Amino acid sequence: MSDIKVNEIKTDTIKNQAGTSALSINSAGVATTSVKHAFYMYRSTAQQIDHATSFQLIQFNASRIDEGGGVTLGSSAKYTVPVGGAGMYVLHCHGRVETGTDGNITIQMRLNGTAIATTYHHNGYYDGITVPMLRNLSEGDYVQCYMSNSIGVTVNVGTQDAGDTLYFFGYRLG
What is the DSSP letter of 51? Predict the structure, then answer.
């Protein structure tokens, strides 16, 4: 095939060879694809994180976004990269412990069961803690969030307070 040189192309939709829409561009120049591969999970009720135990899986029990269908909620909460969803992802997990007791808390993100990012924090008073990550994910990979607590008492996480206090989101960059 030889090169095609043009001065200007005007189009609204680019289709793949099968004829389905692969890319749309609106009048403001915003390009969108048919499947966005994005998720947002959160905890709407309290979950206990025991003192001085190993990391505990955050059991997200609700979801606001599940573009591509990779969200699993409950006792095995995770995001699994669906077929066609491989690529570079922005991932972000945030949690807040519900206590004014001083002590150490940790939040961790895992890929296929292995830790890929951990943030440590000394809690002062109902502090939040975040672990962000930019990661290349393949189809079938799954990511989860865990927390641990060495404050001295069992703490709750996930109770709503002017919005979500325990959440996990991600989206594919490309």
Answer: B
Whether the CB-CB separation of 39 and 67 falls below 8 Å is answered with yes
Model confidence pLDDT, tens digit, residues 75-115? 999 999 999 999 999 999 998 887 777 778 889 999 999 99
Cα–Cα dist 91/167, whole Å = 11
pTM above 0.70, yes or no: yes
Q: Which two tokens stand for residue 7?
A: 């001065």
pLDDT (tens digit, 9 = 90+) per residue, 151-169?
777 887 878 888 898 999 9
- Cβ(9)–Cβ(29) below 8 Å: no
Do 143 and 170 contact (CB within 8 A), yes or no?
Answer: yes
- Cβ(112)–Cβ(98) under 8 Å? no
